[in-house]
């Protein structure tokens, strides 16, 4: 019989990948880490039985989490990524020549080691003199360890209702807001509006209590629940709908992002708008 990896999306919905073989399986002190080779969609990174990335589709997620905030800032130089041990967000940030340094903070060293060994299409970017890797809980890193100020802070964590819950708390958002430089931008993953509208409202409410401006945007990401995934971007400065960063960059390096996608991503469907305060 053919083996499948199956992820629960809701009480009555499942999403499955046909699996050819198990490449790597390990358990750290924090979580179970697996790398599987799927039949049609390349390698999968699984943490605690939840899909983190799929080789065939990861570019949509990583480009949209990073490029929207990066192109919304006139000249990003210092970036902090919380989570993101696979290296996908770093790969996207390094496309911007203006960026001088990237701090990556991931709780679990074994995620980074597995990614470097088995997922080079994202993790090769981890080896760069512009990248500094730290192994801490993201909340405590910002609160106690790092004294740096950032132009961009990205949350590329596991799900908001799991071990990463503190990265979606109001107290964390307050700390993050104080570590942004002038015109700094904070951007976090959301979730699927089709299955987890309560989480979207919670994230929105907490961000709005801290930042002057908060906007939601969407992307089509087939590897996650429902294929429709949300992100939330916040700042104390007004966030433009259009890309304003005009720095030299090879736009052929993008598979999903472009200036029209940037603008269109903020166009929310009516049912989504009803989730948010007016």
Task: Kindly describe this structure.
This protein is of the alpha/beta class and 278 residues long. The chain has two domains: 3-54, Spermidine Synthase, Chain: A, domain 2, CATH 2.30.140; 58-273, Rossmann fold. The protein contains nine helices and twelve strands. The longest helix is centred in the first third of the chain and has 15 residues, at 58-72. It is globular. The N and C termini lie far apart (52 Å). The mean pLDDT is 93.
Read across the widest sheet, the strand sequence of neighbours is 8-7-6-9-10-12-11
Kindly report the average pLDDT value: 93
Radius of gyration: 18 Å
Proportion of strand residues: 25-35%
CATH superfamily of the largest domain, please?
Vaccinia Virus protein VP39
What's a concise summary of this model?
By secondary structure, the protein is an alpha/beta fold.
């Amino acid at each position: 019989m053919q083996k499948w990896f199956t992820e629960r999306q809701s009480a009555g919905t499942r999403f499955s990948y046909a699996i050819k073989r198990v490449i790597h399986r390990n358990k750290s002190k924090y979580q179970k880490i697996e790398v599987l080779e799927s039949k049609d969609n390349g390698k999968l990174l699984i943490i605690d039985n939840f899909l983190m990335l799929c080789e065939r589709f990861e570019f949509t997620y990583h480009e949209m989490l990073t490029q929207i905030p990066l192109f919304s800032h006139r000249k990003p130089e210092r970036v902090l990524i919380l989570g993101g041990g696979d290296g996908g967000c770093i790969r996207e940030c390094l496309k911007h020549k203006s960026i001088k340094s990237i701090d990556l903070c991931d709780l679990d060293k074994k995620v980074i080691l597995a990614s470097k060994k088995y997922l080079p299409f994202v993790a090769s970017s981890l080896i760069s003199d512009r990248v500094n890797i730290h192994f801490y809980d993201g909340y405590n890193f910002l609160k106690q360890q790092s004294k740096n100020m950032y132009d961009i802070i990205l949350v590329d964590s596991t799900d908001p209702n799991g071990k990463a819950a503190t990265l979606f708390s109001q107290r964390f958002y307050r700390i993050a807001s104080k570590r942004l430089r002038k015109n700094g931008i904070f951007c976090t993953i959301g979730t699927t509006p089709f299955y987890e509208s309560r989480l979207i409202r919670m994230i929105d409410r907490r961000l709005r209590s801290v930042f002057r401006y908060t906007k939601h945007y969407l992307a089509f990401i087939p590897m996650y629940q429902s294929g429709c995934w949300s992100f939330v971007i916040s700042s104390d400065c007004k966030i433009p709908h259009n890309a304003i960063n005009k720095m030299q960059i090879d736009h052929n390096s993008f598979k999903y992002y472009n200036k029209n996608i940037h603008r269109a991503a903020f166009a929310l469907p009516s049912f989504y708008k009803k989730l948010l305060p007016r």
